[in-house]
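Regression check, glyoxylic acid case 321:
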Amino acid sequence: MTDRRPTLYLSRLLPDPVMAVVRERFQLVQEPLDALPTPLALREGLCQADAAIVTLGDLIDAETIHAATRLKILANYAVGYNNIDLAAVRARGLIVTNTPDVLTDATADLTWALILATARRIVEGDALVRSGQWTGWSPTQLMGAEVSGKTLGIIGMGRIGQAVAQRAVGFRMPVRYHTRQPNAATSFPCEWAYRSLKDLLGESDMVTIHVPLTPNTHHLIGARELAWMKPTAFLINTARGPIVDEGAVVNSLKIGIIAGAGLDVYEQEPAIHSALAELKQVVLLPHLGSATLHARVQMGLVCLKNVQAVLDGHPAPNHVQ
Ligand code: GLV
Ligand code: GLV
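Current build output:
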C-alpha cells in the first residue's frame, strides 16, 4: 500500500512527545539528527517536502526558498524568525509560522534567573564552593547588588517583555519600558511607565531586552547607549544576540561603564566574543530561553498544528508572513 501521508522535513530531533506525533502523521524526508544540518542537507530536505519544521539555527536564504517549489509551509520552531529571508518568502508566497505564547513564561523566568544570577554573583559563588577554596562565611565575601526595590527597564513590551514586568511585583521593582508603539500599551498597569530609550537606560538598574531582531533593532544597544546606562547597572539579553553590539558590551564592562551583563544570546552563536569568558561580572548561558521540557513540547505541537492547518487548506494559526 502506498504511503499517503504528507512529507515533512524536520531539521532537528525534537523532544520525544513531539517525535511520536511526527512519526505517526508524516513521512520524514530525512531522519533528523540532534545536530544542525549542513546547508546542503537542509536544502535537500526542504526541496523534497510538502511542509517543514526548522529551528533558529537554520539559515533559510532566498535561493533555498525559491528552490523548494513543493514546500507550502515553513514552521519555525521559535518565536523569532530572523533566520528566514522574509522578502523571498513573500515573493514566493510561502507560509511562515512561529511559536508565540507557549514559551513566554519559560523565557521570562530565564530572564529573571539571569537578573538574579548576575546581581547576586551566583556563578562565582558556585565556583568558589566547588573549588574547595571557600574558607567560610565572611561579611565582605562576594557582595552583589540589591535587586528588590531597584528600577527595572524593559526594552520591548510584547508578550515576553510584559511577562518579565509582571514578575517584578514581588521584587517591588518600579517598571520602566520602551517600545516602538507606546500607544499599543493602553492595557498596561498604570505603574509601568513609558520612557524614551535614553531615559530608560539612564534610570534603570536592570535593563532587559525583549524586541525581535530586525534590520531596525540590529545593534540597538551599542557603545553610545551603554554609556547612557548607570555604572552600577546590569544588561540582560535573552532576545537575539545581534540586537546588542557584543564588542561594545565587552569594552563597557572592562572599563566599568556598566556593572555586569547576563547573556543568553550572542552575535555569532555558538561563538562568543573572545574576552567575554574572562569577565567575572557576566553570566553566560547557551541560548536556554525556551529550554523547559514543557515549552519545547508545546513549541513542537504548535508547529504541527500550523503544518496540519496549511496542508488541510486552512489558514495557519501563527502565520507571520
Ligand atoms: C528562541 O530564541 C525563540 O525565538 O523561540
Ligand atoms: C547570614 O547568613 C545571616 O544570618 O545574616
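Comparison notes: The two ends are 37 Å apart (CA to CA). The longest helix spans residues 293-311. No diff flagged against the previous build.
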